[in-house]
């Protein structure tokens, strides 16, 4: 930690209450006519700690002290205002989180330390994670980078920090925080979560079972405002190759079955003939990706695409069987 830099205090958790939205009707009275029509979706402002659902999206709001409000509008839109706050985090997204592409837009105006981040938690292992696109006066997390991942038109530094006996979604616990922090700020664009999750996994930073995943505004001893709209889907700067792939130009890949458990198994791949490769992996039946290492993987089921991420030409994946125990096949082409 650099001298003078203060880490974010993680928040104590309280029992969270679902936000109850009210559907309203209004009577429109004209000369001789009375009609009852449904009102549009109402904006709703929250100022107390809670999580729930609003207009088709999950939301979470937490603060420890200070003046903070979040006003939620149609779809994935929300805005925040904060001042004299110690620590808060608020946003809209999904529960549970997953390997999705997230697109967002809007404005972010911090005065002091604040993050604009795709934020979430997993259990087993308990992990708090951040994909940070912009920040205020201090770029988090004040640690040594473990490498980088290039995705969605930018470069992100990767970090792992640890919280010891600190509040979490499951009470006081010791847990890791995983970080991808963009090297240059932006407010708006697409975040392809799978590229970050895979880059973390290649460094031994594995996620567990997802809890929520929100596009969050977080502030610490600061003031400011944000107005963000989030939705699922968007571009991916690492599109899969055409199927079938072009000629392999001397690129070959070997496929080897490895460790196996009741509900999943590992498969390893070894590429030869080039260091600039694209491996197309064809899974079977309902198999789905659980983990990967030493390569950047796109896709979750069906056809997966692997590309080098700086960790050599040997990589692996873990697949959930989902009723099918057949080893996947693979082909290789130059990138």
TrEMBL record:
Compositional bias of kind Pro residues: 238-247
Residue ranges constituting the CBM2 domain according to the UniProt record: 244-335
Entry annotated with the keyword Hydrolase: yes
Keywords: Carbohydrate metabolism, Glycosidase, Hydrolase, Polysaccharide degradation, Signal, Xylan degradation
Reaction catalysed by this enzyme: Endohydrolysis of (1->4)-beta-D-xylosidic linkages in xylans
GH11 domain ranges (all copies): 45-231
GO molecular function, one term: hydrolase activity
SUPFAM superfamilies registered for this protein in UniProt: Carbohydrate-binding domain, Concanavalin A-like lectins/glucanases
Residues annotated as the enzyme's active site: 128, 218
Signal sequence, start to end: 1-43
Protein origin, superkingdom: Bacteria
Region annotation Disordered: where it falls in the sequence: 223-252
Pathway terms, separated by semicolons: Glycan degradation; xylan degradation
Enzyme class: hydrolase
E.C. number: 3.2.1.8
Gene3D superfamilies: 2.60.120.180, 2.60.40.290
Similarity comment: family membership: Belongs to the glycosyl hydrolase 11 (cellulase G) family.
Protein's UniProt name: Endo-1,4-beta-xylanase
